[in-house]
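Input (structure):
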């Protein structure tokens, strides 16, 4: 039912005329999945369940993947695991439309990519950190302190005592 060239473009036309309560699961498992121009996920797995309701096709989605982000402390790219679930309705007509503004297309083909992308971005951490104990960068020389100690004192450079320390060192 899914298109090999556009794996997230799903043919749900058969559900439009199915009995209320009929559902169908689409499962996904890809090493690499591109959602739009700037979001590439690795180890992308998930399920999209479409159910026929009186108002439209209800989508229950449950997805996971990994994305490369830059750590705010050490400025090094790392892989962030994402997991996201959501429920949304593709309405049959404008009377039933939700704030997501989704309608069942006349072709019966739903492209999940734009919606998955929007919900994936909501799961991005506000301050991405490569690991909980990331030591960050040395404020003196900029070395990545996760890779070793550059030998500079750890005291904050703007501490009032830092200047004295340099005088007496
Ligand atoms: Zn880091
Ligand atoms: Zn240093």
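Output (sequence):
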């Amino acid at each position: 039912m899914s298109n090999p060239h556009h794996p997230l473009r799903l043919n749900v036309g058969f559900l439009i005329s199915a009995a209320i309560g009929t559902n169908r699961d689409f499962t996904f498992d890809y090493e690499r999945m591109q959602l739009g121009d700037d979001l590439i996920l690795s180890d992308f797995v998930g399920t999209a369940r479409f159910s026929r309701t009186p108002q439209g096709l209800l989508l229950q989605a449950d997805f996971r993947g990994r994305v490369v982000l830059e750590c705010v402390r050490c400025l090094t790219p790392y892989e962030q695991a994402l997991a996201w679930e959501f429920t949304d309705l593709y309405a049959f007509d404008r009377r039933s439309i939700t704030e997501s503004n989704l309608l069942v297309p006349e072709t019966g083909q739903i492209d999940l990519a734009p919606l998955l992308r929007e919900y994936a971005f909501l799961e991005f951490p506000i301050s991405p950190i490569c690991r909980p104990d990331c030591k960050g960068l040395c404020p003196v020389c900029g070395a990545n302190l996760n890779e070793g100690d550059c030998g500079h004192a750890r005291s904050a450079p703007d501490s009032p005592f830092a200047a004295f320390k340099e005088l007496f060192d």
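Notes: The chain has three helices and six strands. Residues 71, 73-74, 76, 129-130, 134 surround zinc ion (ligand 1) (CB under 6 Å).
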